[in-house]
Amino acid sequence: MVINILYFTSTGNTLWLVQQARKIIEEKGHTVNLFESVTTGLEFIENCDMIGIFYPVWGSDLPDPVKDQVRRMQEGRGRKIFLIGDCAVFTGDTGVYWKKVLERKGYDVFYVDHLTMPININIPGWNLWKVPDKDKQDKIFAEAESYLKEICSSVLEGKRKIDGTSPFSRLFGVLQRVLLAPFTNYAKKFFMCDSEKCTRCGLCYRICPKNNITIDEDKGAIFGKDCIICMKCYNFCPVNAVLVDKGSRDDKRYRRYKGPGRGIHPIEYRK
Question: What pTM does this model have?
């Protein structure tokens, strides 16, 4: 069997999951091709027996790059799809909502599930949940790997499961999606650069999925209007010069999530 997986990753959790999924599935004798949603066209729907979509949950919704790809997908004609999301706190009805979208296109969305991964947002006004320390991260990744093995086995066996159907998930999922765009438009105004700390290395420019950052020799990083709050620039800046409000200068209180490690590095979209 050939399985094509479309994915988006911000700080690396989803990339780690798709790489683990590929390893698990290929050990069972199948072929897995990975397609990064920012850089691929619609070739991920071609030449395969099954399609997987992996995504970080954003406000009970898909991240914009995956959402854009799903909307462009052509008639499914009954082709099988499974949806696997990851989130630190609340997944809502993300998979259920997009299952319906894909089914209207003619796909058979037979499996929807979500895993818990470390949180990557720790900013002023959003610090109820802290970035976990290494021991806690190791525990989260061990549990995720164990559960991912169960998911992959179930998918290969053709089992059906739909996560996120409870009334609580549906209600708060709808509320989160309604509030997501206003929140994004509000929050992106607070991105700024500490020009004294900024080394002008250009990493934030290279890893931004929307090409929303430019580097100025005097001001450092300058942010445009196309931010999708992926948090890559904020978390991966080597000197924590990217800020979300001035309060985040306190990088001990507002600790950055530097990604899962484990051989995972931030995807760079440009030189």
Answer: 0.96
